């Protein structure tokens, strides 16, 4: 079967194994990405057993990159990009230049030609968008100062990569051992000019035409009332713009999708559009990591550990060290500088593309490509550990920031472990949305000591100045519930719409405290006994209450008539 249907085989086996290894990774309390990478290595050609189609996997991974960057663009406006340009543009360019030099040095030590060193250096200078964005999303840092600078930095890296991809075939041979094709400075400048002009033309077309056309199209589709069509239109726009950007303007898929998202972010529909792409985006992001794992030949790592170590040191210490110094020069706090530097301490998709190109041009051999791949996998595995260190040494970092007067304290975006509440005999309200907000007002008026758990960062922040204690996080996470002192609480109100998570929360709350009163929210008949069984004392079915109230109003109105 696998040979007849390579795509189906890849999806079934790849996603199935990613699920299994992801679950194991989760149990071992490490990043899910590690599980996906291992799944990739298992379905790859270098381990015994089933081998999935590598070329297919790479294409699917590219779809993942497109959807991811589209999502990033949706959360990013031109204004955001402009706000960080003063630091992102010089920062990213200087960091890449320095990392390329480091790579050249390492290449020289390894006996590569100058051209080979250039390929190695370029590959080591660019972080993986997927890994960095996943890291920021997991830690809810996308909307923070560090997050915005990191995204700006990524966009610049991406632009420079487009340029490198165009220039490498010209400059590379000049620097290789053979010194083949020879082009004058004029020709090189012409090529650079042409590439920049194409990128500028693409951005201009998007700003002048796309900015009007795309939101208008989505508005039109939204008015048809068909969710299915809307979802489809969002996908078509994301993939379509990315594809045409690459075909017509020579821009990378990632950059094309990013600009498409950014153009959309100025319309009100953007949030809905973002939500529509979420599930697909996650599935394809998993495929991206599987495809990375598939490229990896574990034997390559074992043969020359010293070389691998050298490459890894450039990625883990060289690049982040340079980025950190630059950010500090730009007067960013320790917390922000370290967050961004650690975010950049990994390499991924762009490095593979560059390594592939270098291989095709004969500048590097298979062996160097394997080193780049090995360093990529190891750096992706090590990356979450760096963030863990950051969390662990937060007090020390904050102390450092305290002595830098120019730095605003609010910049410290590194997350601390949740502090445990001091409240006892209190009410815990979960979800501060349309329902929770109203419940909170009532509870406060009744004099309850109140603690709110809310997953949405913005919503939670809106409560910060009030007298209510607020915790940002998913209440289904046992650590969050424990920090809310459920064991000492008197009342738990679960005001979230998702039955799956609500069930988890009710179950855990009941286990932690057999006496606490639990009131939960439901939307369907079957959810009421489900939540009751898990331990809720009272389940309020929203639709029933609405109907009851409507009926009462109808009666009141008809009596009056
Ligand atoms: P609404 O449906 O308008 O009442 O909004 C529900 C609110 O609950 C939103 O603000 C969500 O961010 C929040 N929410 C949903 N799930 C969770 C969860 N598992 N933990 C904490 N807050 C949540």
TrEMBL record:
Entry's Gene Ontology cellular component terms: membrane
SUPFAM superfamilies in alphabetical order: NAD(P)-binding Rossmann-fold domains
Membrane-spanning intervals of the chain: 6-25, 32-51, 57-76, 83-102, 108-132, 153-175, 187-209, 229-246, 308-327, 334-359, 371-390
GO molecular function: antiporter activity
Keywords: Membrane, Transmembrane, Transmembrane helix, Transport
Membrane topology listed for this record: Multi-pass membrane protein
Compartments it resides in: Membrane
InterPro entries named among the record's database cross-references: Cation/H_exchanger_TM (IPR006153), Na+/solute_symporter_sf (IPR038770), NAD(P)-bd_dom_sf (IPR036291), RCK_N (IPR003148)
GO biological process: potassium ion transport; proton transmembrane transport
Domain RCK N-terminal: 424-541
Family: Belongs to the monovalent cation:proton antiporter 2 (CPA2) transporter (TC 2.A.37) family.
Protein name: Kef family K(+) transporter
Organism: Acidisoma silvae
């Amino acid at each position: 079967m696998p040979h007849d249907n390579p795509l189906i085989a890849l999806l079934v086996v790849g996603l199935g194994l990613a699920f299994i290894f992801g679950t194991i990774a989760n149990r071992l309390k490490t990043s899910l990405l590690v599980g996906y990478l291992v799944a990739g290595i298992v379905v790859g050609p270098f381990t015994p057993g089933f081998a999935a189609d590598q070329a297919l996997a790479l294409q699917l991974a590219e779809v993942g990159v497109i959807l991811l960057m589209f999502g990033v663009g949706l959360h990013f406006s031109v204004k955001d990009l402009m706000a960080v340009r003063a630091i992102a543009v010089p920062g990213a360019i200087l960091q890449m230049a320095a990392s390329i030099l480091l790579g050249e040095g390492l290449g020289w030590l390894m006996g590569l030609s100058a051209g080979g060193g250039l390929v190695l250096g370029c590959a080591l200078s660019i972080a993986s968008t997927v890994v960095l964005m996943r890291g920021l999303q997991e830690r809810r840092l996308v909307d923070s100062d560090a997050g915005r600078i990191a995204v700006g930095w990524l966009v610049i890296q991406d632009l420079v990569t487009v340029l490198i991809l165009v220039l490498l075939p010209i400059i590379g041979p000049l620097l290789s051992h053979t010194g083949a094709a020879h082009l004058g400075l004029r020709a090189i400048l012409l090529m650079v000019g042409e590439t920049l002009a194409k990128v500028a033309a693409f951005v201009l077309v998007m700003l002048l035409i796309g900015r009007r056309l795309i939101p208008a199209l989505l508005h039109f589709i939204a008015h048809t009332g068909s969710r299915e069509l809307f979802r489809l239109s969002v996908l078509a726009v994301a993939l379509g713009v990315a594809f045409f950007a690459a075909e017509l303007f020579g821009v990378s898929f990632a950059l094309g999708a990013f600009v498409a998202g950014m153009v959309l972010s100025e319309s009100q529909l953007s949030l809905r559009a973002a939500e529509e792409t979420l599930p697909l985006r996650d599935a394809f992001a998993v495929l991206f990591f599987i495809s990375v794992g598939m490229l990896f030949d574990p034997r390559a790592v074992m043969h020359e550990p010293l070389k691998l170590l050298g490459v890894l040191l450039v990625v883990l210490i060289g690049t982040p060290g340079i980025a950190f110094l630059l950010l500090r020069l730009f007067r960013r706090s320790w917390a922000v500088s370290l967050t961004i530097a650690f975010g950049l301490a990994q390499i991924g998709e762009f490095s593979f593309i560059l390594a592939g190109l270098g291989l095709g041009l004969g500048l590097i051999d298979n062996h160097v490509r394997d080193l780049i791949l090995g360093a990529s996998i190891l750096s992706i595995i090590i990356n979450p550990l760096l963030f863990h260190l950051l969390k662990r040494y937060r007090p020390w970092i904050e102390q450092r920031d305290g002595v830098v007067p120019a730095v605003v304290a609010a910049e410290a975006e590194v997350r601390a472990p949740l502090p445990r509440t001091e409240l006892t005999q209190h009410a815990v309200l979960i979800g501060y949305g349309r329902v929770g907000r109203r419940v909170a007002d009532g509870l406060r008026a009744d004099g309850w000591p109140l603690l709110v758990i809310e997953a949405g960062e913005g919503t939670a922040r809106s409560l910060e100045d009030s007298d209510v204690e607020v915790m940002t996080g998913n209440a289904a996470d046992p650590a969050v519930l424990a920090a809310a002192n459920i064991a000492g609480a008197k009342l738990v109100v679960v005001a979230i719409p998702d039955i799956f998570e609500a069930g988890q929360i009710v179950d855990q709350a009941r286990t932690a405290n057999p006496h606490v009163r639990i009131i939960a929210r439901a939307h369907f008949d079957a959810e009421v006994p489900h939540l009751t069984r898990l331990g809720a004392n009272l389940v309020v079915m929203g639709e029933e209450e609405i109907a009851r109230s409507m009926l009462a109003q109808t009666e009141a109105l008809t009596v009056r008539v």
